[in-house]
Amino acid sequence: MVFKNIICPVCGGSCDDVQVNLDTKNRTIDVQNACKMGNAKFQEVVSSHRILKPTIRENGKVKDVSWEEALEMSADILVNARRPLFFLGSETSCEAQEVGLHIAEYLGAPADSNATICHGPTVMGIQESGMVGATAGQAKNRADMIVYWGVNALESMPRHMSKYGVFPRGYWTKRGRFDRTMVTVDPRVTPTAVASDMHLQLNPSSDYELLSAMFTILNGKEPHPSVEEITGIPISVMKQTVEMMKESNFVAIYVGLGVSSSYGKHRNIEIALNFVKEMNNYTKCNIGALRGHCNVAGFNQLASYLYGYPFGLDFMKGYPRYNPGETTTVDLLREKDVDAAFIMSADLVNHIPADCAKYLADIPMICLDIAPCPSTTAADVVLPGVIDAMECDGTFYRLDNVPVYFEPFTESPFSETKSNEDTLKQLFAKIKAKKEA
Amino acid sequence: MQALLNTGSTINEGRLAKGGNKYSEDYTKECAVCWMCAEDFTSLGCPEKVSVTSRDGKHTVAVRSKVTEAMRSGQVFIPRSIWANVVVEPDTFSTGSPRYKGAPVSVEPTDEEVLGAEEIVLTLYMGGE
Amino acid sequence: MADVILKPIGNFDLTVEAEVVTPDNFAGKTADEIGKVLVWQGPAEYPLTDFFTVEGNGGSSAEDTTIIVDGEIPRVKRIGQQMTAGKVIIKGSAGMHVGSAMEGGEIIVEGDADSWVGMEMKGGSILIKGNTKDHLGCAYRGSWKGMTGGRITVEGDAVSQVGGGLSGGEIIINGNVKHFCGIRISSGLIVVKGNAFRTVGAEMTGGTIVVGGNIERFTPGFELVDIESDLKFNDIECPGEYNKFTGDYAIPQKGKGTLYVSCDNNECL
Fold first, then answer.
1. What residues of A are in contact with residue C41 (Cβ under 8 Å)?
2. Is residue A126 domain-shared with residue A274, that is, in the same domain?
3. Mean pLDDT, range C251-261, rounded to an integer
4. Which residues pair with A429 in a beta bridge?
5. Same domain, A180 and A159
6. Which residues does A289 contact at the CB level (< 8 Å), separation at least 6?
7. Is A113 in contact with A94 (CB distance < 8 Å)?
């Protein structure tokens, strides 16, 4: 059967035009419009390596158990821990994340999400200086200058350029690519840089100096000449770039981890945001982050409106507190300041530094995921995941913080649970029963 | 050789990770790779495999080498994956985000075997369990 | 003067938050009462005696009370938070947030101190004899005003964001700093006797920064105005010749700060 307008649950692009032909008899799936990454994820519905049975590790050996036993053991781990870490990953719905946040609050535990090892500094930068943003559609229809700063859009969000950024024909950009100037700022010659009209190949971790110098130029002053050696970009090129921006009708800047993860972190974003604000004295200019995972923006929105902080929340004292560097996943694990972990829809072990991964493997860990990965290998309890946007409905937030409601085209393969939200609610009930007993 | 390590996504890394194939041979081939420029590759003696070591010398990982024009001398790139993260510094400068970009590392030729993702978890993180 | 001696006895598997350990809180309490004061570890509160032995009673007032921590407490946070008078001496290393939002009195850390020492401090003095990490005397997340008064002295090194948003008071670092020293300061004084890595005085709109060593990567938005020698700020002396810069012109705000950079150690400037 063919299903149209399916939301893709892979990257922050949340493409909403995917067409799926699912053959339940032969267990095959044909996917149209999705990119390489999207297609790979849709194949998970029929894949042979899908995790279908809960497992636990007993005396170093992994064995299959019933859902009831797995949930029971998970609840035991979380109730007996003094300070369990909740890592509520982004490849699931806001609804599931919300239940996770409530469990963390109930247990007085820290709760975090993928933003902490991704665009966390971007969110911190926004907190420092506010943001001139726009929805993806605005940029598509109006932007005639696109800047990809520290992001390799072609490989991290493959359809961004064709759907929102560079190629689509918008209302005021009728000739598509020909109506747009594309600039990439990256220390590496990425495929995105190759496809651009201009590539500023700056030295690694010199984004702040480059932005600061361009800001100085915008303010009508001459930057200190040492900046050429620091960034590897001639001042004349900086001037040209600022001039190009001023002469454009609408500049859309997209930042990636190159800005927020290289050192400078939130300060890089902060000055970029201030630069954009000032640029609006000359022309329309906005900035947005290319978010890597489908619902990484969702957790930030959800946690902000429920508890006031976008990520790295700590409920230790009964009320939410937030201090990146103290209450964030990597720091808590590095400082060994948690004694158990619940990881949902994220492969944390794969993506954190060795010292942290090692400690995570040491402490009791529960992992909810759909396929075998380093986190499920190191976990003590593995709960099978339901694939959002394919097997259950829910909400994602797109890269531009627009909520997208998705509906499934098939159903959960498990009789015990309808969705990750359902699994977490069952777990929460067990935790409450144990705690209040 | 001292170098600055950059990590990030590649399209095939994304395809394999999102498709749940982290324990496949293809994933190791795509991600356990250190990109460098021809000049650095030659100065290392054109090794097939290199070991990348973190600044504090605590962590080392063996990966295949790849020559590309995308890199400048003194800079190396490993696709975002468990191999890269073995040597990424855990210090976050009070931001929660470790140094995925621009961590200083040393790169040397090696004959060590390139481990799969699962072997890394089992041997490096779980103490050979 | 009454001394309360706290000797750490362990149980620091999870970090402890001890914002109650201040002379203000201990004044008028006996050793027994002090031992019953509750501190946080994870989501539960435990008496101080679970972690320390307590010797000596508190003084009649905060001024009369000296707290001596006799040992290493790198996993105890928030000692001396919001204290207004008296003295705290930590004979080893201290955890995060030492003297956070402190209003008066004196803190001496004989070892290293973790991040966030003297966050938004209003008065008093802090001396760190070892090294410290990030956000020394800095503003809280999202706030634009950091320390407003008092003095912090670090005999070793600090790392990043020293004195972020400083709007009064003095910070003296005898060692080196790394990134964003004096970011967005609007008043006050920061003296770094050693080297700085990059972005010194970024976004500053007032105040003074002196760097006696070398700046590896100079902030682009600064303009050379003068050369001055043998600087003196009250009791703080900075001998030698200094290039005087104003900035940061990278931001549109009208006010500009002053950045002195040693001539001898920065020939390329």
1. 82
2. yes
3. 93
4. none
5. yes
6. A119, A122, A254, A255, A256, A260, A399
7. no
Q: Does the pLDDT at position B129 exceed 50?
A: no
Q: Which domains does chain B have, with CATH numbers?
A: 2-125 (2.40.40.20)
Measured between beta carbons, which residues in chain B are less than 8 angstroms from residue A121? 95-97
Residue A46 tokens, joined: 């029929």
Q: Check residue A293 and give its pLDDT.
A: 86
How many CB atoms neighbour CB A220 within 10 A?
8
Q: What is the average pLDDT across C53-75? A: 96
For residue C114, the chain A residue with the least C-alpha distance is A326
Closest in A107, A213, A317 to C220, CB measured: A213
Looking at A219-328, list the stretches that DSSP marks H as alpha helix, in order from N- to C-terminal side. 226-231, 235-247, 257-260, 266-279, 296-307
Size of interface A-C (CB pairs under 8 A): 112
Give the residue-averaged pLDDT of A31-37. Answer: 95
Residue type, A122: T
Interface test with B, best of C97, C117, C134, C180 (most B CBs within 10 A): C134
Domain boundary among A256, A289, A322: A289
Q: Do A378 and B121 touch (CB under 8 A)?
A: yes
Same domain for A33 and A64: no
Residues 6+ apart with CB under 8 A from A50: A44, A370, A371, A384, A413, B20
* Identity of the amino acid at A66: S
Domain that holds residue A23: 2-42
Instruction: Answer yes or no: do A106 and A166 share one domain.
Output: no
d(CA A314, CA A190): 38
Q: How many CA atoms lie within 13 A of C188 on its CB side?
A: 34
Q: Which of residues 275-314 of A touch B (CB under 8 A)?
A: 292, 311-312
**CA distances, A74 to each of A84, B126, C184 (Å):** 11, 20, 47
Confidence at residue C200, expressed as pLDDT on a 0 to 100 scale: 97
Based on the fold, state whether residues A261 and A183 are members of the same structural domain. yes
**CB under 8 Å to C72, separation ≥6 — which residues?**
C8, C92, C93, C111
The band of C182, judged by pLDDT with boundaries at 50, 70 and 90, is very high
Cα separation, A135 vs A116, in Å, equals 23
C114 touches chain B (CB under 8 A): no
- Residue C269 CB burial class (10 angstroms; 0-12, 13-18, ≥19): middle
* Structural contact between residues C114 and C96, judged by C-beta atoms closer than 8 angstroms: yes
Neighbours of B59 (CB within 10 A): 21
Neighbours of chain B (3+ CB pairs under 8 A): A, C
Q: Closest Cα partner for C4 from C17, C20, C99?
A: C20
Q: Which of A252, A267, A289 corresponds to the end of one domain?
A: A289
Q: From CA A224, how far away is CA C144, in angstroms rounded?
A: 26
Q: Residue C151: enclosing H or E segment and its boundaries?
A: strand C151-154
d(CA C22, CA A188): 52
Average pLDDT over residues C18-38: 97
What CATH number did the domain enclosing A138 receive?
3.40.228.10
Query: In which band, very low, low, confident or very high, does the pLDDT at B128 lie, cut at 50, 70 and 90?
Result: low
**ipTM greater than 0.85, yes or no?**
yes
The alpha carbon dihedral of A205, A207, A212, A214 has a sign of positive
Residues in chain A closer than 8 A to C43 (CB atoms): 82-83, 107-109, 315-318
pLDDT tens, residue by residue, A159-211: 999 999 899 999 999 999 999 999 999 999 999 999 999 999 999 999 999 99
Q: Does residue C103 contact residue C39 with C-beta atoms inside 8 Å?
A: no
- How many angstroms separate the first and last alpha carbons of chain B? 33
Six-digit token string for C61: 């007032």
DSSP state, residue C152: E
Q: Number of folded domains in chain A?
A: 3
* Averaged confidence pLDDT in chain A: 95
